[in-house]
Amino acid sequence: MRVVIAEDNVLLSTGLELMLTAKGFHVAAITQDAPGFVAAVAEHRPDVTIVDVRLPPTFRDEGIHAAITARRRYPGLPVLVLSQYVEQQYAGELVSDGRGGVGYLLKDRVSRVSEFTDALRRVAAGGTVMDPEVIGQLLTRPAHDPIAALTPREREVLALMAEGKDNATIAARLVITDNAVHKHIGNIFAKLGLSPADSGHRRVLAVLTYLSRR
Prior knowledge:
The chain is of the alpha/beta class. Helices cover 50% and strands 14% of the residues. The mean pLDDT is 84.
């Protein structure tokens, strides 16, 4: 499994390379900035990528924007984002396109080798992996379980959303029309109490609600 890493901290990137190589991954490239990452993705077409949120030169959001740019050029590109802190805006922005193969973990998870490599494989397979602390900050758990209000079909749709599937893929998987998928998703948003004001983040919040109750 080929991996491209965008991480400016040489100690961390070297550690990642050694750890992943020992676990059977092939680190195709390590870059230290956003342009280098996008170029490496174009050259190596990796099976999964690891990206630090903050990269040179400003160390603000270059990494996440590079990941989003790469996913636009190569739809479905699996991206696992690493961050020192929970960046709520970036966590939501990354997974709101509904294309799957995304993850957001805090950097201290890297030291838990099996947990980290399992998460990387899930992302590479098209799944969604969110750090529990990210879920905790993005969600305020209601006293009741809103998932219980969903119909069996709506739960199937939400489960596929949590795998990162887009509407067309969900329709094909469940053998229903795109309009039916759209209607089910609208019902899911309504039953989970996600208003239209939440815009594109409704899909993210719906998925996080589902994942937090698995």
